[in-house]
Amino acid sequence: MVFSAALSALALSLPLLSVNALRTRRALCPDGVNTAINLACCSLFPVVQDIQENFLTNECGDSAHGALRLVFHDAIGISPTAGGGGADGSIATFNETELTFPANLGIDDILDEIGPFLLKHSNTMSPGDFIQLAGALSLVQCPGAPRIPFFMGRAQPKAASPPNLVPQPFDSVASIVQRFGEVGFTTPEEIVAVVGGSHSVAGADDVVPGLQGLPFDQTPSVFDTQIFVDVQLRGTIFTGQGGNQGETETSVLGTVRLQSDHLLARDSQTNCAWQSFANNQAAMAEAFGQGVLKLSLLGQNQDELTDCSEVIPAAIPFTGGPATLPPGLTMNDIEQACATAAFPSLATQPGPATSVPAIPQADDDDDS
């Protein structure tokens, strides 16, 4: 890993911006260009510009997907009893430890990509703040995604996360629900929104060898509810663990399904929550935004942080239509799982069926 040594050696006593009193009027920042309600947030504007233009390149692509994944893997690795971890940037500072955890397979790619930016702005922000800022900015690159609050002032990480706390794509629903419950996610809707919403703008990484960049639904560059339809289709093959990677052909050509998504859509604990988000864009976006905000504050005291949400640009509105069935399929191809409500009626896309393009990888862009 190119930047692992540098990130691990990053000083753990870098200065943080102080919390200023709440202001009600915008004031001109020292740069003479930007304005802010809280002048403590002024130093973030050049960081935001750098992340958007040079890291995310102003698109909902592989880098944005990776930044969002990093938010989750950094934050949820926290134990109420064992200590360490949480939304503190430990996955970057103590990467030599945390990247050995099986659930963090492939995270080294996004850390290599984001590492130079994190180091460049290390005098302005702690690793935990930078990861959360990049994640919040990644969402506003994706049409339909919510604009989530951003709080600044996380201390330098003191220790690596304990092992075996990040859910894996091969875990049972009971295990996933238990892990989320340990960090304060108490309803199936919260869990399903965070998992499904994240996978709405995501694709296969090293977890599926040889299938790098295959999306999880038909619209990986749009934050929408198509994931909740595509995973519910009958006959899709989900990926297995170890030597059981097996078949990867799905009912949606060019996509791949994670076992955990397949099970969440069908298990009695979560299937009605999963179905409830199909064609319910507003509810899904709201629940997802609340869930990611909760993740961003794990291990933190919000009262000790500065609300710098004003530096996050406006979200891109969702302008797409309702979720649909792939060409040639009908409602009979939906594998009904929720026992208390019928799956929403869906239209079928005109044919013939075509394969969903793979998500261009950041390394591919560099080579072009």
SSE map:
Blueprint (H helix, E strand, L loop, with lengths): L3 H5 L18 E2 L6 E2 L7 H12 L6 H14 L14 H4 L1 H4 L8 H14 L6 H13 L11 E2 L20 H10 L5 H13 L25 H5 L28 H6 L6 H6 L4 H16 L9 E2 L54 H6 L1
Antiparallel strand pairs: 1-2, 3-4
Mean pLDDT level: 88
Number of strands: 4
From the N-terminal CA to the C-terminal CA, the straight-line distance is 22 Å
CATH fold-type name of the largest domain = Peroxidase, domain 1
Overall outline: globular
Instruction: Order the strands across the largest sheet as they lie in space.
Output: 1-2
Q: Oligomeric state of the chains?
A: single chain
Report the major sheet: 2 strands, antiparallel
Which regions have little confidence, pLDDT < 50, spanning 5+ residues?
Answer: 9-22, 241-248, 364-368
Number of domains: 2
Q: Kindly name the structural category.
A: mainly alpha
Rg from Cα: 20 Å
**Percent strand:** under 5%
Query: What proportion of the residues is helical, as a percent range?
Result: 25-40%
**CATH architecture label name of the largest domain:** Orthogonal Bundle
Alpha plus pi helix count: 14
What is the CATH C-level name of the largest domain? Mainly Alpha
Which H/E pattern describes the elements? Answer: HEEHHHHHHEHHHHHHEH
